[in-house]
Amino acid sequence: MFRLRQKHSRRKTEQFAKPDPQRIVAEQSLSRAVIGGVAVVLLLSWLWAIFSLNSGRILPWFSILMGAVIGLAVQRFGRGLDWRYPVLAAVLGCSGAYIGNLMIGVVETGRYIDEPAIRVLGGLSSDTMENFFTSTVNPIDHIYAVCAAGVAAFFANRRLNRREILAVRMMNGEK
After folding, report:
1. Measured in whole angstroms, how far is the alpha carbon of residue 170 from the centre of its chain?
2. pTM of the prediction?
3. Which residue in 171, 173, 174 sits closest to 23, CA to CA?
4. Backbone dihedral angles phi then psi of residue 127, each to the nearest 5 degrees
5. Which string of b and e fits 28-45 if b means at least 16 CB within 10 Å?
6. Between the CA of residue 123 and those of 55, 118, 134, what are the distances in Å?
7. Does residue 68 contact residue 151 with C-beta atoms inside 8 Å?
8. Is the separation of the CB atoms in 150 and 87 below 8 Å?
9. Alpha helix (H) residue ranges in the chain
10. Which of 54, 94, 143, 163 has the greatest count of CB atoms below 10 A from its CB?
11. Hey, how many other C-beta atoms are within 10 angstroms of the C-beta on 107?
12. Rounded to the nearest 5°, which phi and psi values hold at 80?
């Protein structure tokens, strides 16, 4: 009775193209998701280290931002629908937080001893890594790594519209 006329709503006579569930499922690629996720981890870790070097601040919340971008990269490159993609994104997000901290340590050490970061990376050993995780990484870094993993897992799955979800479910025999 008091409803206004909708000028911009869709007409009931419009027909949408029927989604192809075989194509949607076939577009999944775990290998592309791994490659895209690892590339984003390496790129953002390096950018985080360079930003920390130039600003003099570490900014641990950058690991959560890194987790969101990793999740979006896994979603974009993998186009996955099942549980493997959020698990992959969570592992990459968590490890990306630690790799970012390691890159900051490598860049700072290289600056301190006046060597390029590549030579410092080449000199890493198991003792160096053990020392890094015992003396440099603190409980707050673990909390940020877990948060980065959660954010990455949240963004990892492909987003489908209603018709695509229904088509995939009908293909799988669900109601």
Report:
1. 30
2. 0.85
3. 171
4. -65, -40
5. beeebbbebbbebbeebb
6. 26, 9, 18
7. yes
8. no
9. 21-26, 30-55, 62-78, 84-113, 117-122, 126-131, 139-156, 162-171
10. 94
11. 20
12. -85, 155
Closest listed residue to residue 80, CA positions, set 171, 174, 155, 149: 155
> pLDDT confidence of 151, banded at 50, 70, 90?
very high
Q: Which residue has the higher pLDDT, 58 or 156?
A: 156
Domain assignments of the chain as residue spans, ordered by start? 21-159
Separation of alpha carbons 142 and 120, rounded Å = 24
| 94 close to 146: Cβ distance less than 8 angstroms | yes
Per the listing, tokens 């080449």 go with: 122
pLDDT at residue 91 greater than cutoff 90? yes
* Pick from 153, 149, 154, 137: nearest CA to 63: 149
> How many residues are present in the chain?
175
pLDDT tier, 3 (very low <50, low <70, confident <90, very high otherwise): confident
